[in-house]
Amino acid sequence: MFFRKPVPTFRHHTLFARFFGRPEPMLTEASARDAAALASLHGASFRRGWSEDEFERLLLDRSVLAHRATLGHRPVGFIISRIAAGEAEILSVAVARGQQGRGLARRLLDLHLRRLAGLGVRTVFLEVDDDNVAARRLYARSAFRQVGRRDGYYSRPGNASSAALVLRRDLG
Ligand SMILES: CC(C)(COP(=O)(O)OP(=O)(O)OC[C@H]1O[C@@H](n2cnc3c(N)ncnc32)[C@H](O)[C@@H]1OP(=O)(O)O)[C@@H](O)C(=O)NCCC(=O)NCCS
After folding, report:
1. Contact residues of ligand 1, CB 6 A cut-off
2. CATH architecture, domain 24-170
3. 4-55: per-residue pLDDT in tens?
4. Global model pTM greater than 0.85
5. 16, 18, 61, 122: which one has the fewest Cβ atoms less than 10 Å from its Cβ?
C-alpha cells in the first residue's frame, strides 16, 4: 500500500524555525573593547571609514552612547550617538551586509532611542544622504521628520553630489 508522507503544518514550520532557524542577533551596549570590530563594520559601510582609534576615543567619551548587535561574539551592527544639553545627535548606524533587510537597524534604533529618553534626552538629530533609501525609510518609520537640507553636501568621485537631510525626532 502507498502512504503519502505527511505534509508539515504551519505549526511544524514555526517550531522548526524556532529551533533550527537563523539565530537572532543580541543587542547590548557597546564599550571601548568593540572599537576594532565597529571600525571594521563602519569601514565596510561608508566611503570614509573611521579608524579604530577614532572609535576608541568615541566609546570612551562619557557623552557618547553606543549599542551593538552581535551574533555569537561577532558584531553585526551598531548605532552611536553623542549627547549634549538634553539633545543627541546620531553619529552613525550600520548593519553588516549579510544581515541587512531583517529589521536589525530598526531594533537597534528603537533600543537606542528608549535608552536616550531614559537618560533625559528630549530631541534627537541626525544627517542622512538624500540618496540613502534604506536609511531614509528607517528614520521615516521611526517618526523622524526633515528640518533642514544641505544641497551638494555629499560628493561622489566623478558623480553628481547629493544633499544631506537634517532630521529631527522629539522623544517622550
Ligand atoms: C541603513 C541600514 C543601517 C539599514 O539596516 P537594516 O538592518 O537593513 O534595516 P532594517 O531591516 O531595519 O530596515 C529599515 C528600513 O529600511 C528598508 N530597507 C532595508 N534595506 C533596504 C534596501 N536595500 N533598499 C531599500 N530599502 C531598504 C526596510 O524595508 C525598512 O523600511 P520599511 O520599514 O519601510 O520596510 C543599512 O542599510 C546599512 O548599514 N547601510 C550602510 C550604512 C548606512 O547607510 N547607514 C545610515 C547612515 S545615516
Report:
1. 45, 93-95, 100-106, 128, 132-135, 137-138, 141
2. 3-Layer(aba) Sandwich (3.40)
3. 544 443 444 445 555 667 789 999 999 999 999 999 999 999 988 999 999 9
4. yes
5. 18
